[in-house]
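Protein in question passed on here:
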Amino acid sequence: MINVTTSDLMMVAGSFGLKMEYSVRFGLKLKDEVNSEMLFRAVEKTQQRYPYLSLRMYQNETDYYYESNPLPIVIHHTYERISLNTAESNYHIWSVSYNEDRLYLDISHGVTDGTAMYMVLSTLLFYYCNERYGVTDSTGIRTLDDEITPEETIDPYDLVPMLDPSQMPKAGLDPAFSLAEDTDLTTCEPLVCDVELPEKEFVDFCFTNEASPGSMVCVLFARALERLYPQRNRDIRNSYIVNARPMFGSKTHHNCVQTIRYAYPKELLALPLNEQCAAHRKVTAEQSAPQYVHGAAAVSASRIKMVKQMAQTVEAKKQAYAKMLDGGKRLFTYMVSYIGQWKQTQLSPYVLELWTHVPNANNLLTEIAAINGKVFLSIHRNFKEDDVIKAFLAQLDENGIAYTVKGTEQVDNAFLPEPESSGI
C-alpha cells in the first residue's frame, strides 16, 4: 500500500468530493505526423524512468491509496478524452494519446504538479525525438542513464512539523470579487480558449513594463475585469501559482507549489501599467521568499493533517477536503499558472504548439506555456459568455501585442473517476 501524501491529499479526496476530473492534458502539435512505433518505444522507456508513477489508485473505508501497477502504459490513437485509473488505461494514473501530428500526455494532478509533469513530458519527447530526429543531447532531462533518487518521491509537506492549533492563524482574507456571484454571467460546463502569442515580442513588452510573463498576464486580466466591472463592492484578487521546489531544495514529483495572493484595489488599478506590474512583481518576490513559503507550508500542511486525523472515513475525507478545495474559489477572482519557459531547448524545434488543459478549479483560470518562440495561453472559464475573453484580448490590442485565437472548446483533460474499493 502506497499512501497519498500530504501535499496531494486535498487534491485527491477533495476532487472526488467535488466530482471534478482532477487531471491535466498537455496537447502538443509536433513538426511531423506521429510515428506510432517510435512513440510506443518512447513511452515504454519513459515508464521505466518513472517507476514511482506506475500506480493504480484504490479506496477502502478510511482512505485513498495506491498500489504499484506493472501493466504497460496505454497509448490511445485518438483525439478524444480518455479515462485514467480505469480498464481503458490499464488502471494507470497517466496515459498517452496521438492522432496525426498531435500528441497528448494525460496525467493525474493528484499525484504530481506542472513542474514534475514537464519532467515526464521532456523524457517522453527526448526518447521520441532521439529515434525520430536523432536528438542525443539529454541535458536537463531525466533519462534511464540517471539514478532515480529517493528525493524524487519525498513530499516536503510530509516533513513539515505539525503546528499546534492555537498557533495557526485564522483565514484572514475576505471574499474576492466573484464572476459567479457578482455578475450576471451564465455558468456552464468548463470551456477553454487557446490563444497564441509571439514570445519575443511579448517578453520584450513584459520587460519594458517591469513584469515577468506570468505577472503581466495577471495584471492584464485585472485591467480587463476593471474595464468590464467598474462598479464593485469587493476587490479583484488573483492567485498566481509558482513552483516552490527551489524554496524547499526539493526534487519531488508531488504537488509542490506556492500560491501568490495579490489584490487590486481601485487606487492600484488607476496607476500606469508599468507601476502595476512592478507592484505585482514585488509581492511575488516577497511571497516566494523561502521563509515565507516555509511558513505558509507549515500552516497548510498542518490543516491537511488535522483534517486527516479528524475525518475517520473516506466519505468524511471527501466532504472535508472538498470544502477546503472549493473554499479557495471565494478568495480569488481568477488564477494564473506559469511553469516557466520550456528549458529543454534541444527538443523545442519539434514542438509547434503546447497547450495545457486543466480541471477548472476556479471560475477563470489561465495556464501559460512557452516553447519554440511562442507563448500559449489556455484560458479556462465556467460561464457561457466570452465577455472576459474579449476584454482580455482588448488589453492585448491596446498594448500592440499580436495574438492568434485558436478557438473555444470544452475541456478535454482525462476523466478520473473515483477508484474502486479494494476490499482491504
In short: The chain has a mean pLDDT of 95. The CA atoms of residues 11 and 416 lie 12 Å apart. The first helix runs from residue 6 to 17.
